[in-house]
Amino acid sequence: MVKTVVGSFDSIAEASTVARELRAAGFLESDVSVIANNTQRDFTRDTTPARVEDGEASGAAKGALTGGALGGAAGLAVALMGLAIPGVGPILAAGPIAAALAGAGAGAVAGGLIGGLTDLGVPESDAEYYAEAVRRGGALVTVRADESRADQVDRIMRDHRAFDIEDRVEQWKRTGWKRYNPEAAPFSFDEIERDRMQYRASPRPDPDLRR
Question: Is the pLDDT at 44 greater than 70, yes or no?
Fold first, then answer.
Protein backbone atom coordinates (compact mmCIF):
# COMPACT_ATOMS: atom_id res chain seq x y z
CA MET A 1 0.00 0.00 0.00
CA VAL A 2 1.35 3.42 -0.98
CA LYS A 3 1.14 6.26 1.55
CA THR A 4 1.86 9.98 1.41
CA VAL A 5 4.19 11.21 4.14
CA VAL A 6 4.43 14.97 4.69
CA GLY A 7 7.11 16.75 6.67
CA SER A 8 6.93 20.43 7.65
CA PHE A 9 10.11 22.44 8.16
CA ASP A 10 11.03 25.95 9.21
CA SER A 11 13.53 26.49 6.40
CA ILE A 12 14.09 25.64 2.77
CA ALA A 13 17.57 24.39 3.72
CA GLU A 14 16.11 21.67 5.97
CA ALA A 15 13.58 20.64 3.34
CA SER A 16 16.13 20.43 0.54
CA THR A 17 18.46 18.33 2.71
CA VAL A 18 15.59 15.90 3.34
CA ALA A 19 14.80 15.75 -0.38
CA ARG A 20 18.46 15.04 -1.16
CA GLU A 21 18.63 12.24 1.43
CA LEU A 22 15.41 10.69 0.16
CA ARG A 23 16.78 10.61 -3.38
CA ALA A 24 20.04 9.10 -2.10
CA ALA A 25 17.98 6.44 -0.29
CA GLY A 26 16.42 5.40 -3.59
CA PHE A 27 13.11 7.26 -3.62
CA LEU A 28 12.13 8.35 -7.12
CA GLU A 29 12.14 11.99 -8.17
CA SER A 30 8.54 11.50 -9.31
CA ASP A 31 7.53 10.63 -5.73
CA VAL A 32 9.23 13.54 -3.92
CA SER A 33 7.93 17.12 -3.87
CA VAL A 34 9.28 20.26 -2.20
CA ILE A 35 7.27 23.44 -1.59
CA ALA A 36 8.99 26.35 0.14
CA ASN A 37 8.23 29.96 0.94
CA ASN A 38 10.55 32.23 -1.04
CA THR A 39 9.80 35.62 0.50
CA GLN A 40 12.73 37.99 0.16
CA ARG A 41 13.36 41.06 2.27
CA ASP A 42 12.29 43.30 -0.62
CA PHE A 43 9.13 41.33 -1.53
CA THR A 44 6.59 43.82 -2.91
CA ARG A 45 3.48 41.62 -2.54
CA ASP A 46 3.16 41.09 -6.29
CA THR A 47 0.81 38.10 -6.54
CA THR A 48 0.96 37.62 -10.31
CA PRO A 49 1.51 33.92 -11.14
CA ALA A 50 4.79 33.36 -12.94
CA ARG A 51 6.52 30.16 -13.96
CA VAL A 52 10.30 30.02 -13.83
CA GLU A 53 11.55 27.87 -16.66
CA ASP A 54 14.79 25.91 -16.36
CA GLY A 55 17.58 28.18 -17.57
CA GLU A 56 15.40 31.29 -17.34
CA ALA A 57 15.05 31.59 -13.57
CA SER A 58 14.33 34.90 -11.90
CA GLY A 59 16.90 36.46 -9.61
CA ALA A 60 15.22 34.92 -6.57
CA ALA A 61 15.12 31.45 -8.09
CA LYS A 62 18.72 31.71 -9.31
CA GLY A 63 19.73 32.68 -5.81
CA ALA A 64 18.08 29.56 -4.44
CA LEU A 65 19.89 27.41 -6.96
CA THR A 66 23.34 28.89 -6.50
CA GLY A 67 22.89 28.95 -2.75
CA GLY A 68 22.15 25.24 -2.73
CA ALA A 69 18.61 25.69 -1.39
CA LEU A 70 17.05 23.40 -3.99
CA GLY A 71 19.94 22.98 -6.39
CA GLY A 72 21.47 20.20 -4.32
CA ALA A 73 18.25 18.25 -4.03
CA ALA A 74 19.43 15.41 -6.27
CA GLY A 75 17.62 16.10 -9.51
CA LEU A 76 14.71 18.12 -8.16
CA ALA A 77 16.23 21.37 -9.42
CA VAL A 78 15.41 20.31 -12.98
CA ALA A 79 11.74 20.93 -12.19
CA LEU A 80 12.27 24.08 -10.14
CA MET A 81 9.39 26.48 -10.48
CA GLY A 82 8.77 29.91 -9.00
CA LEU A 83 5.21 31.05 -8.33
CA ALA A 84 3.52 33.91 -6.51
CA ILE A 85 0.34 32.57 -4.92
CA PRO A 86 -2.36 34.85 -3.48
CA GLY A 87 -2.72 34.22 0.24
CA VAL A 88 0.68 32.53 0.44
CA GLY A 89 3.20 34.70 -1.40
CA PRO A 90 6.22 33.69 -3.49
CA ILE A 91 7.16 30.02 -3.38
CA LEU A 92 9.58 27.60 -4.95
CA ALA A 93 8.29 24.16 -5.90
CA ALA A 94 9.88 21.02 -7.29
CA GLY A 95 8.65 17.54 -8.09
CA PRO A 96 5.06 16.46 -8.85
CA ILE A 97 3.58 19.40 -6.91
CA ALA A 98 5.24 21.79 -9.37
CA ALA A 99 3.37 20.22 -12.29
CA ALA A 100 0.10 20.36 -10.34
CA LEU A 101 0.57 24.05 -9.59
CA ALA A 102 1.46 24.81 -13.19
CA GLY A 103 -1.68 23.02 -14.33
CA ALA A 104 -3.85 25.17 -12.03
CA GLY A 105 -3.40 28.12 -14.39
CA ALA A 106 -3.66 31.80 -13.59
CA GLY A 107 -7.35 31.66 -12.74
CA ALA A 108 -7.07 28.84 -10.24
CA VAL A 109 -3.61 29.38 -8.78
CA ALA A 110 -4.97 30.81 -5.51
CA GLY A 111 -6.37 27.41 -4.64
CA GLY A 112 -3.65 25.55 -6.46
CA LEU A 113 -1.53 24.78 -3.42
CA ILE A 114 -4.46 23.14 -1.60
CA GLY A 115 -5.44 21.27 -4.76
CA GLY A 116 -1.86 20.23 -5.46
CA LEU A 117 -1.52 18.76 -1.99
CA THR A 118 -4.84 16.93 -2.12
CA ASP A 119 -3.87 15.51 -5.52
CA LEU A 120 -0.84 14.00 -3.76
CA GLY A 121 -3.12 12.28 -1.25
CA VAL A 122 -3.21 14.83 1.58
CA PRO A 123 -6.67 15.34 3.21
CA GLU A 124 -8.03 18.83 2.49
CA SER A 125 -8.16 19.88 6.15
CA ASP A 126 -4.49 18.93 6.55
CA ALA A 127 -3.62 20.60 3.24
CA GLU A 128 -4.95 23.89 4.62
CA TYR A 129 -2.64 23.57 7.63
CA TYR A 130 0.32 22.89 5.39
CA ALA A 131 -0.53 25.83 3.12
CA GLU A 132 -0.65 28.09 6.16
CA ALA A 133 2.74 26.76 7.26
CA VAL A 134 4.18 27.75 3.87
CA ARG A 135 2.50 31.17 4.09
CA ARG A 136 4.27 31.68 7.43
CA GLY A 137 7.69 30.98 5.95
CA GLY A 138 7.85 27.20 6.10
CA ALA A 139 8.70 24.45 3.67
CA LEU A 140 7.15 21.05 2.97
CA VAL A 141 8.46 17.75 1.67
CA THR A 142 5.92 15.19 0.48
CA VAL A 143 6.83 11.61 -0.36
CA ARG A 144 4.78 8.81 -1.83
CA ALA A 145 6.22 5.69 -0.26
CA ASP A 146 5.30 2.06 0.07
CA GLU A 147 4.05 1.29 3.59
CA SER A 148 7.15 -0.82 4.20
CA ARG A 149 9.36 2.25 3.70
CA ALA A 150 7.22 4.88 5.44
CA ASP A 151 9.17 4.51 8.71
CA GLN A 152 12.39 5.22 6.81
CA VAL A 153 10.89 8.46 5.50
CA ASP A 154 9.79 9.34 9.04
CA ARG A 155 13.32 8.88 10.37
CA ILE A 156 14.89 11.05 7.69
CA MET A 157 12.37 13.85 8.28
CA ARG A 158 12.67 13.71 12.07
CA ASP A 159 16.47 13.78 11.84
CA HIS A 160 16.18 17.13 10.05
CA ARG A 161 13.84 18.89 12.45
CA ALA A 162 10.42 18.29 10.95
CA PHE A 163 7.94 20.02 13.23
CA ASP A 164 4.57 18.76 14.44
CA ILE A 165 1.93 20.54 12.37
CA GLU A 166 -0.82 20.15 14.97
CA ASP A 167 1.36 21.71 17.66
CA ARG A 168 2.17 24.58 15.31
CA VAL A 169 -1.53 25.08 14.53
CA GLU A 170 -2.24 25.35 18.27
CA GLN A 171 0.39 28.09 18.50
CA TRP A 172 -1.28 29.98 15.66
CA LYS A 173 -4.70 29.66 17.26
CA ARG A 174 -3.41 31.19 20.49
CA THR A 175 -2.66 34.34 18.49
CA GLY A 176 -6.15 34.47 16.94
CA TRP A 177 -5.75 32.37 13.79
CA LYS A 178 -8.85 30.32 12.91
CA ARG A 179 -8.28 28.71 9.52
CA TYR A 180 -6.44 29.08 6.25
CA ASN A 181 -7.65 32.10 4.29
CA PRO A 182 -6.66 32.21 0.59
CA GLU A 183 -7.32 35.97 0.61
CA ALA A 184 -5.00 36.73 3.52
CA ALA A 185 -1.98 38.95 2.97
CA PRO A 186 1.30 37.05 2.62
CA PHE A 187 3.68 37.27 5.56
CA SER A 188 6.50 39.77 5.18
CA PHE A 189 10.15 38.81 5.58
CA ASP A 190 10.24 40.46 9.01
CA GLU A 191 7.08 38.66 10.16
CA ILE A 192 8.52 35.33 9.08
CA GLU A 193 11.79 35.98 10.91
CA ARG A 194 9.90 37.06 14.05
CA ASP A 195 7.92 33.82 14.09
CA ARG A 196 11.03 31.70 13.47
CA MET A 197 12.66 33.19 16.54
CA GLN A 198 9.59 32.29 18.61
CA TYR A 199 9.56 28.74 17.26
CA ARG A 200 13.23 28.27 18.15
CA ALA A 201 12.48 29.32 21.72
CA SER A 202 9.51 26.93 22.10
CA PRO A 203 9.67 23.23 23.05
CA ARG A 204 9.44 21.05 19.94
CA PRO A 205 7.32 17.89 20.38
CA ASP A 206 7.98 14.78 18.34
CA PRO A 207 6.20 15.33 15.02
CA ASP A 208 3.18 13.32 13.92
CA LEU A 209 3.91 13.06 10.20
CA ARG A 210 0.62 12.76 8.30
CA ARG A 211 -0.01 9.78 6.02
Answer: no
